[in-house]
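Co-fold these.
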Amino acid sequence: MEELNPVAHEIYIEVQQALFKETRMLREERWREWLETMVEKDIVYRAIVSQLRFRKDNRYTGDKDVPSLDENWAGLDRRVAQMESGMQWTTDPAERIRHFITNLEVFEGKNPNEYVIYSNCQTVRNRRVYEEMTYCYGRNDIWRRGADGKLRLARRDVDVDERFVSGKNHNFPM
Amino acid sequence: MVDVNSLVDVKNGTQAKRIFWDADIYKLELERIFGRCWLFLTHDSIIPNVGDYTVTFMGEDEVLVVRQRDGSVKAFLNYCTHRGARVVNAEAGNARGFTCTYHGWAYGLDGALESVPFEKEVYGNVLKKDTLGMKEVRVESYKGFWYGNFDHSAPNLADYLGDYRWFLDIWMDGTGGAELIGPPARSILKCNWKTPTENFIGDAYHVGWTHAASLKALGGPLSVLAGNKHLPPEGAGVQITSRHGHGVGILFNAGPALMGGEEGAMAAKWYAENQPKVARRLSEAQAKYYGSHFNASIFPNNSYLWGTNTFKVWHPRGPHQIEVFTWTIVEKSMPQELKEAVRRSMLRTFGTGGMLESDDSDNMESMTNLNRGPHIVTGMLNSQMGMENDHEDELSGNVIGPSAIGETSYRGFYRAYREYLKAKDWDEIRANNGKWKDELLNR
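Predicted complex below.
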């Protein structure tokens, strides 16, 4: 793995605040605002579960990645449109989703205006009366600074620990 | 003792709510349905090479499926015949043999017990190794799709699929074969296994309502149904049920279904270009359906959507829970770019993060869980839509409901369900071969 350079303290804090702001925006169901102001148009947004394999098995040719989200900007736009339609009864009454982000590491990216961000996340999702679901995953993000000086999400690779989805589905902002 | 006759009224199109809740009925299902029907295991594309294996379930039994040295496929119960520990802890891989983690008993690819640590020293001549291989399960493939069966008196897979193959071949064979993109996503839903099976087999009715928001957001041919603004026009589709309960609902020329924009256009073009090929390989009549959207289940727990391209097994885990395995299906000859578009669209709609998948699971769980109430679990559920219009389909040999929306395939599924639960063996089921349509057609 190539060596990454950690960013200066003030940038670390700036990135941390951007991540916190993002989760608050999503928690407040401001999906359109999130997509328009915090997401780059060339976004790659993926969530991957890993199939269980023996450590020494290097002969099997099948893919190990099990994607549950593989979206571009247009796909995210459709997901936001679903929520904006006024017809999405599965989130009516509303779900409550709270992200916890920790183990934050921020590095300089390959391009001068980009940052590579590692974090661990635990997300607790409540819906209906009895359903409380917890998801544990890592995130590798790339955030990019635009001409306006603002940070936007350019790539997110979610690495989910749980092999099966016990909490029903991954149809929520990770 | 379960009174099976009270559970399904075929002529009246109703089913007892208890079949989605009661433990004694579930036990009978494991014995008489999962113990004797063909159950989906894997596809050639998942285990292409000698020594490739994958682990799955048949009912609640864990099964190891292995590509043999001669190219054939065998399946075994995934436990050691010594003390019953799991033999393979990975989900898939390539191996030269399988060694139990407990004491190191080692089995070959063919399931034979090959070696036992310190055999001479600790067992002397006691152990009859040739009788202690992994327990084998009968397997057969149809067009590269492998199924297993615990019952050696069951008909072969092709006969079990029977006249339903007329519809299956359209996508499994029409352009030279289909394949699965794996590994499967796995998720737990707290619902009875029959609930998603019946939904996929024949429920075009819920599409415009349950999925209103998703349809509106996604575009594609199905989007006109959003919010029940329109019924599909007369003659827009059909529903089919077959001898062993397999069924399909077809919405004509709606193949790309939920793929809008450039991707939808690419899929539509593919279907249009390949229709003549399907006509040559199969028949003009079958080619007419190529490029349509199929919602379907193969009895008892294997569902698929062709056009939305998801392929699922609903593994039962007790009467109130299932584990879902989900793959993408593509035609082998599709260009890589189209396969990718189809895969992304499947993930967006019916994958574990899918927009429509999460609509359905909410309904499916409440349909199961509410039955804990003794007053709610009493009584019957209704699937009478289109009853008076069902008739024999001379072309395919099945029973057909001549409209896009109806409950023909529900009725056929539960007809077969009752038949399996009642029959003490396959001979009893075979005896009904000439008269299975009678009750459905009320004659």
